[in-house]
């Protein structure tokens, strides 16, 4: 089984796109490159004689690998950072990086202005704070910038190990690299629950100098950590311990620890585990995983000067272009409005000329004063004639056909007894004046009206009969009394 296949068994996930990862440990510099498709393309190891020579080693590693024009993730070993646990300040992430140096100033000897810090919340509600000197971070950035390399993040190594077993929610890891100490880490859901440096354990554990006392001491320290986790973190059940130690026979180490512990012990890589150093695994993990913290915070990153001469010239140029476009657009709109106004003015002129012509025609059709006076006289004449017609309409039917029938009836009725000297007929009013042979003739004469077509239905309100000295009888018969007339 080759190196590529063994790395693929880690089942890593990629959450940030980078092409290079650099790991700086006490024993050497590790550089890993990807092909952009989550596959390892190249890996390089530069050993260090002592941990303080990391700057020279990094320069050599960049030159040997031809590192340039790329983005990198950096993983630093414990010799380049410190770690403390403090009460959680409950600050927003954007305020945390600025406040942490002041919160840990009593725990360190460096000045607040000379350190950078970031932290992650722990399972017990506290915060694990990681601190590095500002000069270390700036040296890293300046050195890599000389190769046109952009730094994405700088992360402590112990947090990167949390991504080594994606298929298990909780596990412990015993790790060792050259020049460092044995370190025990415990993780749950990719969160660090325990980090211990086992200072009483000296390498090598296996090989020709192997002895049971070393294994007993190591197993005792591991069991103490398991008991601590069990007592302090209720509900957390860790049943797996993995080992990744440089220059050790992992098969023998796993076998000896399995005899002394009540948990399952296994190498982090099963096939020929001595092939891969801890730093090589960290470089692979750092290549494809997003860190929880970043010691290269925004305050250290180059600030973009938005008011540089070039940007000002460009902004003025863009402003002038847009101003020209807006000016041209509004000028075009003004021309369109002017054309529309000219068209409306022309239409208005035409309508005024048409109105003037119609007014002249109207003047020719207006009547003269003489005609208006004649019309008024005719209207008055019409009204007079309408009044006359209304009077005529009030005449009864007998009057409309003439008085011949009435006169004929009166002649027949009064023949020999009645002599009429005056007859007045107007509408419904009928008055008679005359002489009678005797007084009783008059009532009988009136009664005989009921038998005549032209006299039937007429009634009288006044009857006056007089007899003079000579015995001549005269009468007056009126439909109305003198007072009603």
Automatic annotation (TrEMBL):
Highest taxon above the source species: Bacteria
Keywords: Coiled coil
InterPro entries: ATPase_NBD, MSHA_biogenesis_MshI
Coiled-coil ranges (or none): 334-361
Entry-linked SUPFAM superfamilies: Actin-like ATPase domain
Protein name: MSHA biogenesis protein MshI
The organism of origin for this protein: Aliivibrio sifiae
Phylogenetic classification of the source organism: Bacteria, Pseudomonadati, Pseudomonadota, Gammaproteobacteria, Vibrionales
Gene name of the record: mshI
């Amino acid at each position: 089984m080759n190196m590529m296949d063994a790395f693929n068994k880690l089942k890593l996930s990629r959450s940030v796109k980078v092409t290079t990862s650099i790991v700086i440990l006490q024993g050497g510099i590790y550089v890993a490159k990807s092909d952009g498709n989550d596959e390892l393309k190249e890996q390089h190891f530069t050993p260090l004689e002592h941990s303080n020579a990391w700057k020279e080693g990094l320069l050599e590693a960049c030159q040997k690998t031809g590192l340039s024009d790329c983005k990198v993730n950096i993983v630093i070993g414990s010799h380049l950072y410190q770690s403390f646990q403090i009460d959680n300040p409950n600050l927003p992430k954007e305020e945390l990086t600025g406040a942490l140096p002041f919160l840990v100033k009593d725990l360190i000897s460096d000045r607040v202005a000379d350190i950078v810090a970031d932290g992650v919340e722990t399972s017990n509600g506290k915060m694990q704070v990681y601190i590095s000197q500002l000069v270390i971070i700036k040296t890293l950035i300046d050195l890599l910038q000389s190769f046109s390399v952009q730094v994405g993040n700088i992360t402590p190594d112990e947090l990167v190990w949390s991504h080594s077993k994606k298929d298990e929610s909780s596990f412990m890891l015993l790790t060792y690299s050259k020049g460092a100490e044995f370190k025990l880490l415990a993780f749950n859901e990719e969160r660090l629950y325990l980090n211990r440096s086992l200072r009483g354990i000296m390498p090598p554990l296996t090989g020709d100098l192997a002895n049971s006392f070393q294994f007993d001491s190591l197993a005792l320290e591991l069991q103490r950590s398991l008991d601590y986790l069990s007592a302090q973190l209720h509900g957390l059940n860790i049943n797996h311990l993995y080992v990744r130690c440089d220059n050790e026979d992992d098969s023998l180490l796993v076998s000896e620890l399995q005899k002394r512990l009540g948990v399952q012990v296994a190498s982090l890589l099963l096939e020929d585990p001595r092939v891969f150093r801890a730093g090589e695994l960290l470089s692979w993990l750092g290549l494809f995983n997003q860190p929880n913290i970043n010691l290269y915070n925004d305050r250290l990153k180059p600030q973009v000067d938005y008011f540089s001469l070039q940007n000002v010239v460009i902004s003025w140029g863009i402003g002038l272009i847009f101003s020209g476009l807006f000016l041209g657009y509004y000028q075009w709109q003004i021309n369109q409005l002017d054309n529309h106004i000219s068209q409306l003015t022309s239409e208005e002129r035409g309508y005024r000329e048409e109105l003037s012509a119609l007014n002249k025609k109207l003047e020719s059709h207006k009547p003269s004063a003489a005609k208006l006076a004649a019309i008024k006289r005719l209207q008055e004449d019409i009204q007079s004639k309408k009044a006359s017609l209304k009077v005529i309409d009030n005449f009864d039917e007998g009057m409309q056909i003439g008085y011949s029938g009435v006169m004929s009836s009166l002649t027949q009725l009064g023949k020999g007894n009645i002599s009429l000297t005056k007859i007045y007929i107007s509408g419904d009013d009928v008055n008679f004046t005359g002489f009678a042979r005797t007084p009783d003739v008059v009532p009988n004469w009136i009664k005989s009206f009921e038998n005549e077509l032209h006299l039937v239905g007429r009634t009288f309100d006044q009857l006056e009969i007089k007899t003079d000295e000579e015995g001549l009888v005269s009468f007056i018969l009126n439909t109305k009394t003198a007072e009603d007339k």
